[in-house]
Amino acid sequence: MYIWLTGILLFVALAFFAFAQAASARNGAQSAADAAALAAAQESRNELAERLGLSIGQGDEWLDWLTGDLPTDIEAARAAADVLAAENDSQVTGLVSTEASGLPGYKVSVETNYTVGDSVIPGTETQHANADATAVIKPRCDVDPSSDPEKVVEFDCDGGESFEIDPEDFEAGDLPDASALFSVHLAE
Question: What are 15-36's pLDDT values in tens digits?
Fold first, then answer.
């Protein structure tokens, strides 16, 4: 009887260990997905700010870049996501532009390069963990809708910050950092 109980307890302990291995792999995949999604959104945010700077004084549509939903280069976002996923020993299996809570962003799917590992549960030695994450780009600044884009425009940003842009006398260094214009965070 003692031998049977010891065997059963040992098997149960090994089974719990297998579940812990799977949970650890899943957490690693989720961390990689979160990092990759944030990297894609940050790359897109930087591109949005750059395009905003290039469009100022080039017409009256430059304020549209502040909404954050104008098209950006998805290939650059994918490259940034690939780098962060690789740093987390994973690979991006999918990246799509999406919208969450009315904000533009990216949904990233990853798979770990490592497996759950050997355990008493058959098949785990070939199982890779998968996870998804969505990161969004949120504009941090507001502009009065009646503002004339050909005259001085005042921006009111989160945290009480504000700045003005005069399209007639604009230089690239006049634009604040991309992080002052747009925030990037994981979608709920």
Answer: 666 666 666 777 888 999 999 9
Burial class, 144, CB count within 10 angstroms (exposed 0-12 / middle 13-18 / buried 19+): exposed
Confidence of residue 171 (pLDDT cuts 50, 70, 90): confident
Say how many domains are in the chain: 1
Q: How far apart are CA 106 and CA 36, in angstroms?
A: 10
Q: What is the 3-state secondary structure (H, E, C) of the chain?
A: CHHHHHHHHHHHHHHHHHHHHHHHHHHHHHHHHHHHHHHHHHHHHHHHHHHHHHHCCCCCCHHHHHHCCCCCCHHHHHHHHHHHHHHCCEEEEEEEEEEECCEEEEEEEEEEEEECCCCCCCCHHHCEEEEEEEEEEEECEEECCCCCCCCCEEEEEHHHCEEEECHHHCCHHHCCCHHHHEEEEECC
Domain coverage including residue 140:
2-186
Bridge partners (DSSP) of residue 97 are 106
DSSP-assigned beta bridge partners for residue 128: 115
pLDDT in tens, 73-124: 889 999 999 999 999 989 999 999 998 888 889 999 999 888 766 555 555 6
165 and 149 Cβ atoms separated by less than 8 Å: no
